[in-house]
Design a protein that fits this description.
Jelly Rolls; eight-stranded mixed β-sheet; elongated; mainly beta; 44 strands; Immunoglobulin-like; 4 domains; seven-stranded mixed β-sheet; 587 residues; 41% strand
Length: 587
């Protein structure tokens, strides 16, 4: 799978305030993060005897959750939480200190930092420090938790043929395009974004900032930022399931799927005709559409080449408690099988990088919306450990993914169990969980009763800001005893005819009479058109022997050749002949 690189920051901006600024500070857009720090009065530290109050508000839609997070010291400068036991940070759920109290915090009472969500658009903070206190203080991030905005994935397919609707068994209600061998298919994507920057609190979605992933179903996968136009030629016969995935700047993915059916070459019968003639001879050649009383040409059958390597990918942008979904539409299994035993579902695997594991939770969701928890690193001991060789920032720069699988029968325990056990490997910027197969946090017995065919989803929650990640690919493995349906199609032959040729002396539509006019091979071409609008032809060769005068028995000239011997004719070794006619005839 090609790497997916989507900018994770988009147009978001951070507005930073020190608690000593006081007053009421407002972010006028849901995209703008509010950052609150201590006073930093003493070269980055707070001073003894401080007493400050500030109110922070995000101008967001009522009821939209707001996330507050203070990360503990991580050693890389991304988290600051150093408030001694004689100092306190009071947080109120409202625009004044009369609002309900969320809590009173310092590093001794809450060494793992402070994290909560609220539907209040304003928070009020009061910080007091002890008479002899000092420390690095804190850095708090206040984010509006935005829902990812759906959009329309619209694609026009430019080709010489038509869209078929409900004409292929097994493809009813699907997008179907027919085409001919060696056609160049041109795809033009034109997504529309009806919710872009909705009411000033949505985020901006632009075509040029979307990643387009073209998967043509024959192993060709091409991606690019703003790659709205794509051309492809299929070199092997058959049908293909192709799809385009469009991913916006915040990780929302929509897709367009289409079945592309190449017309199979029609079946031309082996007509019997006299294929070796002499000049002036005639022969009949029979064409036409196959039927009970004639020979000629008939329909052929082809199959859809289903690429059963069901995978998908997604960027995991800088987290703010949003759930990111990546989807795999499983189809083609015969009889719509159901998982009746946990062993019917073998494993789920992903190639992922992210800093940090402590930010993440992941669930697998089957087509009936049943969920099983794969791993939960949030606020656990995994805070500073990576998945894969990650790039530790939020700039949308992908690192190197490691393969992590989840299987009930895995030798290793869960990710958290293996983390505690030290199953780590060194990577560029720290340590990462070793690649391999782990047990899921919740076993797969919860999937019993789930259908196999349908939309399987991975739900990833990145709970904390500052870093991002990527799932480059993920896939599922089922019981190999589940069999796959075969989708067959057979376009009808709708017309057939002979190409004009001056040597055709009689053309009765399906039967022609020909009189070849030249020596050697004479070509007569029969054309068939199918219901996909594709033309197929075959050529019949009638060989004409050369006109040669000779005494051999291989020429076509049947005119008698006479040699007259007279009394005056002399030929050594022959007697004198009287009025003798001898004809030498060759065939």
């Amino acid at each position: 799978m090609a790497l997916l690189a989507v900018s994770a920051i988009g147009t978001a901006q951070a507005q930073e305030f020190a608690i000593s600024d006081g007053g009421t500070q407002i972010s006028d857009n849901c995209q703008n993060t509010l950052v609150l720090t201590d006073s930093n009065a003493d070269n980055g530290n707070y001073l003894p005897g401080e007493n400050y109050e500030i109110t922070m508000c995000i101008n967001t839609i009522a009821g939209t959750p707001v996330q507050f997070a203070i990360l503990p010291n991580s050693g890389d400068g991304t988290g600051v939480w150093d408030v001694d036991g004689d100092s306190e940070l009071f947080i109120y759920e409202g625009d004044n200190t009369g609002a309900p109290t969320i809590g009173v915090f310092n590093t001794e009472t809450d060494p793992n930092g402070v994290f909560f969500t609220t539907t209040s658009t304003c928070l009020t903070f009061v910080f007091t420090s002890g008479a002899s206190s000092s420390g690095a203080g804190f850095v708090a991030n206040i984010n509006c938790i935005q829902e990812l905005q759906p959009f329309n994935a619209i694609v026009n397919v430019q080709d010489p043929h038509s869209l078929l609707e409900d004409t292929i068994e097994g493809l009813e209600g699907k997008n179907v395009i027919t085409f001919c061998f060696n056609d160049t298919l041109s795809f033009i994507a034109a997504p529309t974004f009806p919710l872009s920057d909705a009411t000033g609190n949505g985020y901006e979605q632009l075509t040029e900032e979307c990643t387009f992933i073209w998967d043509m179903g024959d192993g060709t996968v091409v991606e690019g930022l703003g790659l709205t136009e794509f051309e492809h030629v299929y070199t092997e016969p058959g049908g293909y399931f192709a799809r385009l995935r469009i991913i916006d700047v915040n990780g929302r993915m929509e897709r367009f799927e289409v079945y592309l059916l190449m017309a199979p070459r029609v079946l031309f019968s082996n007509n019997v005709f006299e294929d070796t003639l002499c000049i002036g001879d005639t022969t009949q050649i029979t064409g036409g559409i196959l039927g009970p009383d004639t020979v000629g040409v008939g329909p052929n059958t082809s199959t859809v080449n289903l690429n059963l390597n069901f995978t998908d990918s997604i960027a995991i942008p800088d987290g703010s408690g949003v759930d990111y979904f990546t989807e795999i539409d499983i189809f083609g299994y015969s009889g719509d099988p159901v998982i009746n035993d946990p062993e019917d579902f073998i494993e789920v695997c992903m190639n992922i990088e992210h800093s940090y594991l402590g930010d993440l939770q992941a669930w697998l969701i089957c087509p009936d919306n049943t969920e099983v928890l794969l791993f939960d690193g949030f606020l656990g001991p995994a805070a500073n450990q990576f998945l894969g060789d990650a790039v530790d920032n939020s700039l949308g720069i992908p690192g190197v993914g490691f393969d992590y699988c989840f299987n009930d029968d895995a030798v290793w325990g869960t990710l958290m169990e293996e983390l505690v056990g030290g199953n780590l490997v060194p990577v560029t910027m720290g340590n990462a969980m070793d690649a391999g197969t782990y047990q899921p946090e919740e076993d797969f017995s919860g999937l019993v009763g789930c259908p196999v065919n349908g939309l399987w989803r991975m739900r990833i929650r990145d709970n904390l800001a500052i870093d991002d990640g990527f799932i480059f690919s993920w896939g599922l493995e089922f019981n190999p005893e589940f069999t796959v349906d075969t989708i067959r199609y057979s376009p009808d032959v709708v017309d057939a005819y002979w190409l004009d040729n001056p040597d055709i002396v009689v053309n009765n539509d399906t039967i022609i009479t020909v009189v070849p006019s030249s020596e050697g091979g004479n070509a007569f071409t029969f054309v068939a058109e199918d219901s996909f609008g594709c033309l197929h032809d075959t050529t019949y060769i009638v060989y004409v022997r050369p006109d040669v005068i000779t005494t051999d028995d291989i020429a076509c000239d049947l005119t008698p050749k006479t040699a007259r011997w007279s009394s005056t004719t002399r030929n050594s070794g022959f007697p004198k002949l009287q009025s003798m006619n001898t004809a030498y005839t060759s065939f």
